[in-house]
Write a structure and sequence with these properties.
This protein has 195 residues and is mainly α. The protein has a single domain (3-27, 38-103, 111-185), classed as Four Helix Bundle (Hemerythrin (Met), subunit A) (Up-down Bundle), CATH 1.20.120.1630. It contains 6 helices and no strands. The termini are far apart.
Length: 195
């Protein structure tokens, strides 16, 4: 199967992810004006994600600048990238749908936010991060380039390592014992096996 087929599959999945995110932000009513954004650690981490999700992959797709870092996988590996990405898209969509108005693109809790423990949140506390990590695994299967393929996964691992501990502290401060109990029965990234 030609390499451009995998690149086209990536673009289709990227567009679907963009629509899912836009609808999730719209549904939450949490759009933020650019003037409200501050340059801080979160902004830097999100910028790295933007570079790994959009800028570098599209530089690779639209130019030959990164071709020196190409590699070739067997066709089955590229074909595996599509369902892996599709699962990431489903999880991203489900995460947004389950959060509803409690979603915020920033690390903040607003007055109308509630602790969401249903839907995919029944099993894992951070399904949106998991969706992005799975996307990060699919990307190098579809974009077979050491730079464009792995840049999103690298940015998301860094985002997860820095942001999630802060998010968990924030949730504990806001929801206290209710969140502590939720943490005890769910895994952060992988569903907890129950006895």
């Amino acid at each position: 199967m030609p390499d451009y087929t995998f690149k086209l599959l990536f673009v289709i999945c990227f567009v679907a992810a963009s629509v899912i995110r836009a609808l999730g932000v719209r549904r939450s009513g949490q759009q933020r004006r650019a003037a409200e954004r501050k340059l801080n650690l979160d902004a830097l981490l999100l910028l790295l994600g933007f570079l790994g999700m959009i800028v570098i992959p599209f530089v690779y797709l639209l130019t030959s600048w990164l071709d020196f870092a190409d590699y070739r996988l067997p066709t089955w590996a590229g074909l595996l990238g599509a369902p892996v990405f599709a699962f990431a898209l489903w999880l991203l969509w489900r995460s947004h749908a389950d959060l509803g108005r409690s979603f915020s693109p920033a690390l903040e809790i607003k007055g109308e936010h509630a602790l969401v423990t249903g839907g995919v949140y029944t099993h894992i506390r951070h399904p949106m991060y998991v969706a992005h990590l799975i996307w990060g695994v699919a990307q190098p299967l579809l974009l077979q380039n050491w730079i464009a393929g792995f840049c999103f996964l690298a940015s998301q691992l860094l985002l997860y390592a820095v942001r999630v501990p802060r998010e968990e502290r924030m949730m504990l401060e806001q929801f206290g014992d209710e969140y502590r109990l939720y943490m005890n029965r769910t895994g952060a990234l992988i569903p907890r096996l129950r006895s």
